[in-house]
């Protein structure tokens, strides 16, 4: 085996291992984003906000296949397999670009929908229904109270009937808190809308950053593979 062919095979095997590791990393990112969004699905009625995460998982599966194909085609010196390798990388690069575009487009649509759904859920709060569970969860999880701040509760049916904010507004270390507004030091005063927007934007921004990084890697890999494919086709790679 010539030095050029050996170097090419070593590079391709290494690149394949990189794609297998990338598949695992993307799978983790995709699942993490979905879990984050699912926690607050009551506030996000449209499914399009899940599209970037779903595409990330699809790309992770494709990258796993690419990694296996790269290892096999490199070891067996298959020109045909290498051609498929290049084709799949081209597809996954295109998918990454589409994901970035979708993420940027839908990022600005999260906030208006979030505000509308939060207002609807807070107005339906009764302490025992499904909407109440979602509101209690977000207030306890994000350590917040109300939509804009704790005064947002003053216009709700719950406050008019009970003259208190929900117990989920109470700080975790306050065992005597009953939700009355005459003891503001015992409740969270910051609003939930801004905090939830920040959580969702961070999750989406992180996923887009990861996709961008892998898109750059895939572009470099595509260029390198084209060069190697042309060289190795002259140096003796054989069709299966």
TrEMBL record:
<comment type="similarity">
    <text>Belongs to the tetraspanin (TM4SF) family.</text>
</comment>
<dbReference type="InterPro" id="IPR008952">
    <property type="entry name" value="Tetraspanin_EC2_sf"/>
</dbReference>
<keyword id="KW-1015">Disulfide bond</keyword>
<keyword id="KW-0325">Glycoprotein</keyword>
<dbReference type="InterPro" id="IPR018499">
    <property type="entry name" value="Tetraspanin/Peripherin"/>
</dbReference>
<keyword id="KW-1133">Transmembrane helix</keyword>
<dbReference type="InterPro" id="IPR000301">
    <property type="entry name" value="Tetraspanin_animals"/>
</dbReference>
<feature type="transmembrane region" description="Helical">
    <location>
        <begin position="203"/>
        <end position="229"/>
    </location>
</feature>
<dbReference type="GO" id="GO:0005886">
    <property type="term" value="C:plasma membrane"/>
</dbReference>
<keyword id="KW-0812">Transmembrane</keyword>
<keyword id="KW-0472">Membrane</keyword>
<feature type="disulfide bond">
    <location>
        <begin position="145"/>
        <end position="170"/>
    </location>
</feature>
<dbReference type="Pfam" id="PF00335">
    <property type="entry name" value="Tetraspanin"/>
</dbReference>
<feature type="transmembrane region" description="Helical">
    <location>
        <begin position="12"/>
        <end position="35"/>
    </location>
</feature>
<feature type="transmembrane region" description="Helical">
    <location>
        <begin position="82"/>
        <end position="106"/>
    </location>
</feature>
<protein>
    <recommendedName>
        <fullName>Tetraspanin</fullName>
    </recommendedName>
</protein>
<feature type="transmembrane region" description="Helical">
    <location>
        <begin position="47"/>
        <end position="70"/>
    </location>
</feature>
């Amino acid at each position: 085996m010539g030095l050029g062919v050996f170097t090419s095979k070593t590079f391709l095997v290494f690149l394949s291992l990189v794609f297998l590791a990338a598949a695992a990393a993307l799978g983790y990112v995709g699942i993490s984003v979905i879990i984050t969004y699912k926690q607050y699905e009551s506030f996000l009625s449209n499914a399009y906000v899940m599209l970037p995460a779903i595409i990330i998982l699809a790309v992770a599966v494709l990258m796993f296949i690419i990694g296996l194909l790269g290892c096999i085609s490199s070891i067996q010196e298959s020109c045909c397999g290498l051609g498929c390798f290049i084709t799949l990388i081209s597809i996954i690069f295109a998918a990454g670009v589409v994901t970035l575009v979708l993420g940027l487009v839908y990022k600005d649509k999260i906030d208006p929908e979030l505000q509308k759904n939060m207002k609807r859920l807070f107005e339906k709060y009764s302490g025992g229904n499904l909407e109440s569970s979602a509101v209690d969860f977000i207030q306890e999880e994000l350590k917040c109270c109300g939509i804009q701040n704790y005064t947002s509760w003053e216009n709700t049916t719950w406050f008019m009937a009970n003259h208190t904010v929900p117990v989920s507004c109470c700080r975790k270390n306050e065992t005597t808190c009953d939700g009355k507004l005459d003891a503001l030091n015992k409740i969270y005063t910051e609003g939930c809308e801004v905090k939830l927007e920040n959580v969702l934007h961070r999750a989406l921004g992180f996923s887009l950053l990861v996709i961008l990084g892998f898109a750059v890697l895939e572009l470099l890999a595509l260029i390198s593979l084209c060069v190697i494919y042309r060289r190795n086709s002259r140096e003796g790679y054989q069709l299966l």
